[in-house]
Amino acid sequence: MKKVFLGGTTNNSNWRDGLMKKIKIDYFNPVVDDWNESAQKEEIKQRKNCDYVLYVITPKMEGVYSIAEVVDDSNKRPNKTIFAYTLEDGDKTFTKHQIKSLDMVGNMVKENGGKWFKTLDEVVEYLNFNKNI
Known about the structure:
This protein has five helices and seven strands; from the N terminus they run βαβαβαβββαβα. The strands form two sheets. The chain has a five-stranded parallel beta sheet with strand order 2-1-3-4-7, with helices on both faces. 44% of the residues lie in helices and 20% in strands. The relative contact order is 0.19. The chain is an alpha/beta fold. The longest helix is centred in the C-terminal third of the chain and has 16 residues, at 96-111.
């Protein structure tokens, strides 16, 4: 069975919970209670070996490493890279300038050969119904 790496915003964001209930393929959730060297090594292994690497960015994002990861993967592994962002996450929202930047990232991912979806429902549809999966 195909497997998707669930990368992107952590920081108490719950986008993964809803997605994991809807997708019909296996997944690796890198969020753990105790982030340690072992967890980091497993994340790197899964990111490399999963059939798809999904990066979902939400307004709860504090660091920018997930943006670097999605661009890196869209260059090195474009056929398995998927990018999406949500406009809201709880009481947090993106500014219009942040949205413009995220759209530019989405275009970059797409131009590199990766997939860019505007909603999590589109991500679910792709993962559940893509004939290549």
